[in-house]
Structures are given as C-alpha cells and as structure tokens.
Amino acid sequence: MEKHSKVKVAARNEEIPKITFLLDKIMSWAGFNGREILEVQLAVEEACNNIIRHGYRGSEGDIRVAVDFVAGSLKVTIEDDAPQFDPTYFDKPDFTADLEKRPVGGLGIHLIRSMVDEMKYELQDGKNRLILAKRAK
Amino acid sequence: MQIMEKSKGDIYIIEISGRMDTISSEEVEAKLDSLIENNEAKVIIDLAAVDYISSVGLRELLAALKRQKERQGSIKLVSLQPFVKDIFKMTGFDKIFSIYSTQEEALNRYA
C-alpha cells in the first residue's frame, strides 16, 4: 500500500492550506490518527513559513511539496528556489530565557524537529530541499 | 476561525474556535490589539475550541502578553486542548503564561 502526491503553490501564506489539506487526505487514507496529522501539518506549516518569511522574503516564488507514503512511513519533501537555507543547522532556542529576552526566531524550527521522526536538509541543484519523515505507529 | 467576546465586570473574555495558524492568527492579533488599546487590563483567552496552534499563533499571544505587561495588565489562558497544551510545554510557553483549566478558575483568580 503506497501513495504519492505532489502540489506546487505560490510562496504566500494563504496557499499553505492547500498543502495541509493534501496532508490530511493522504494521512487519513494511510491510517494516521488525528494527532499525528496535526503534528505533520504543524511541521510543514512551520517549514513553509520559514521559506516565505526568511527565504523568499516577500518576493515571488514557488514551494513544491511531494508527499509519499511507502512502507508505513510518510515522507514530505519541501523544495524551494530561495537562497540556500539549512534549518537543521539551528540549535534549540533558549526557552529558559525570561519573557523580555526570549529570542523570536528558532521557534518554528524547534517545532518542526519535535513533530516528526526525521528532518533532513539537502541542497539539490541549488534548490533547498527539506525532507520530513513520520512513521505510522 | 471564530472569535466570540463577552465581559464579566471588568474582565474581558474572548473565546477562540478553530485553528490558530499563519492566516487566522492575524484575526486574533487584531482583536487583542484593540483590547489592549482600549486598556482592558484583565483578559481571559479561552482556547477550548482550538485544536491547533503554530509558532505564528504563539508569537501573537506572546506579543500581546508583553504589551499587556508594559501596561500593568495581564492575560490568562484557559482550557488548553491536548495538542495545544503539548506545544506550550515544548516551547516553554507554559511557564510564561498563567494557564487555568476553566474560565471559572481564571475568573476567580481575577476576583
């Protein structure tokens, strides 16, 4: 039992629901529970947010997402053409800092890492490629 | 996303339902901004019907809390659902916000 699907969206916030909808469809089909679907949707929303805000920085561009369910594992590949950015390079932010000193960045990347079983970055022909994996329990 | 509002005495309560994601959080931000501008010092945000929150939603809440504190006001959060509760723990937001199980509990704390 396997399934493959792809979606290409413009790098704009209002396009993100198209991706989360696709994840819901495939993950429900694959038997993931509601909680697991929310986790992957969150990881992917955070990744897209980073691409839109810090990658393209308001300029036009595409985000290409491939969703593959093979051998009990979901793989989400998120590709963009923004300048090179490796989110796996970031450490966990200091969450012990008090309110005023809290860093604004790093929160999204920490959430991505916490929501999936695997997070991998590749630079492929000058394109950023983030690969997230979640195993069905 | 839906936002319902009510007040009990000098306490302002907003009940959010839906997902607090990148898009819908803008609505929450606008609502919180107007409350703070109106000098509502005691605010309760009820998240009983929110099953999802992203970092954008968290940042909006944090920004509102910072502004409230500058004005000697406060924000109490109530009825966090399991996924949202875990996100708060994971990010340390559970230590920044005053969180209560029910509206009644938060109202009593304000009394």
Tell me the fraction of residues in β-strands of chain A, as a range.
25-35%
Mean pLDDT of chain B: 95
First-to-last CA distance of chain B: 30 Å
Strand order of the largest sheet of chain A: 1-2-3-5-4
Q: Could you give a short account of the major beta sheet of chain B?
A: 5 strands, mixed
Number of DSSP-assigned strands of chain B: 5
Percentage of residues in helical conformation of chain B: 40-55%
Distance between the termini of chain A: 15 Å
Flag low-confidence runs of chain A.
none
Biggest chain contact: A-B, 24 and 21 residues
Shape of chain B: globular
* Overall mean pLDDT of chain A: 91
The major pleated sheet of chain A works out as: 5 strands, antiparallel
Rg of chain A, alpha carbons: 15 Å
Strand residues, percent of chain B: 25-35%
**What is the overall number of helices of chain B?**
5
Number of strands of chain A: 5
Oligomer state equals: heterodimer
Summarize, please.
Chain A is 34% helix and 30% strand. The radius of gyration of chain A is 15 Å and the shape is globular.
Which characteristics define this entry?
heterodimer, A: 137 residues, alpha+beta, 5-stranded antiparallel sheet, 3 helices, 5 strands, B: 111 residues, alpha/beta, 5-stranded mixed sheet, 5 helices, 46% helix, globular
